What we know:
Elements: E1 6-9, E2 17-21, E3 33-39, E4 48-53, E5 57-72, E6 75-81, H1 85-109, H2 116-127
Parallel strand pairs: 1-3
Antiparallel strand pairs: 2-4, 3-6, 4-5, 5-6
Helix pairs in contact: 1-2
Amino acid sequence: MPSPISYIQHPDNTPLSLDARPSSPPETPPLPLGLICNSLNKMPNGTLVEISSPRLAPDMRGIGQIIWCRRLGKGYQLGVAFYTSDDLYAIRMMEQLCHIEHYRHILVTEGQSLTLECAAREWIEKFAEHFPTDGL
């Protein structure tokens, strides 16, 4: 099974929903950007999943395919490939929100209190230019 060239690492402190979807596997090669995330559940390679972040972006979701699953501590680390630019774009936007929330959480633990909007502005200034795009 071909793999993406690079991945976005999902932050552990921001929960994702991964729901298996019955469907036939894609016949096209994966796009060059994938996602790495952790799960308590083992998911077989080839499983199609709908990925969402109900707390941060309830209306944003994308469909991907599990291309690898590795044991990690008490759970699993999953590699997810995407096959349409719409799915990858939605996941990339959702991941930016997750990374902004993760950044805000770090600042709170350091004693700073920022609204999500202020944290977003600060994160964009510091990190947005380095966030993977891979042609989107």
